[in-house]
């Protein structure tokens, strides 16, 4: 039996179990049977996190699960009153969260409305968040961030990255940055 002999719904069900999102897009370009099946909600429903509606308010522009998947993977969605972003990694459908500078604790960072000789809060048009923290000069600093474990997927390895832009930086060139990640019992 050839794949084109199977009903589209059956092909869609099979694709949802054996393919990554990247595979489905690639297969839909080479076969009419896969092209039609790739539009079925059952294919894309497996790649959309089951808890996404509790994390992200419903996206009204999404008419199908495929549209919703590409909406969630094409660009970050700002959540938690602008303090975090959520996005699906396009090739694998893995969850990606980013904490804004306002959602983490930075040593010597000024609080709202306070001035600091070390930091300032600044708006940058290229940032996904409303404000970023700009460091002037310190001899050391500590950054602490938290994310509730209930929003993470079980049995999944996660990585943590510090995303920053260096402009006329000195210090980092001479001393390596140390990073540690730890968990707590609270969710």
TrEMBL record:
<feature type="domain" description="F-box">
    <location>
        <begin position="1"/>
        <end position="47"/>
    </location>
</feature>
<dbReference type="Pfam" id="PF12937">
    <property type="entry name" value="F-box-like"/>
</dbReference>
<dbReference type="InterPro" id="IPR036047">
    <property type="entry name" value="F-box-like_dom_sf"/>
</dbReference>
<protein>
    <recommendedName>
        <fullName>F-box domain-containing protein</fullName>
    </recommendedName>
</protein>
<dbReference type="InterPro" id="IPR025886">
    <property type="entry name" value="PP2-like"/>
</dbReference>
<dbReference type="InterPro" id="IPR001810">
    <property type="entry name" value="F-box_dom"/>
</dbReference>
<dbReference type="Pfam" id="PF14299">
    <property type="entry name" value="PP2"/>
</dbReference>
């Amino acid at each position: 039996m050839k794949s084109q002999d199977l009903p589209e719904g059956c092909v869609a069900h099979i694709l949802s179990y054996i393919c990554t999102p990247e595979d489905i897009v690639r297969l839909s370009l080479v076969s009419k049977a896969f092209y039609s099946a790739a539009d079925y909600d059952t294919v894309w429903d497996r790649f959309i996190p089951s808890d996404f509606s509790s994390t992200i308010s419903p996206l009204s522009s999404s008419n199908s699960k495929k549209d919703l998947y590409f909406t969630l993977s094409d660009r970050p969605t700002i959540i938690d009153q602008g303090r975090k972003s959520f996005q699906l990694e396009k090739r694998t459908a893995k969850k990606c969260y980013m904490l804004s500078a306002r959602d983490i604790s930075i040593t010597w960072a000024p609080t709202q409305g306070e001035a600091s000789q070390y930091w300032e809060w600044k708006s940058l048009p290229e940032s996904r968040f409303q404000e970023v923290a700009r460091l002037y000069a310190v001899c050391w600093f500590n950054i602490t961030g938290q994310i509730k474990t209930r929003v993470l997927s079980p049995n999944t390895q996660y990585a943590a990255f510090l995303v920053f832009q260096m402009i006329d930086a000195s210090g980092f060139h001479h001393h390596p940055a140390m990073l540690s990640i730890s968990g707590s019992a609270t969710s």
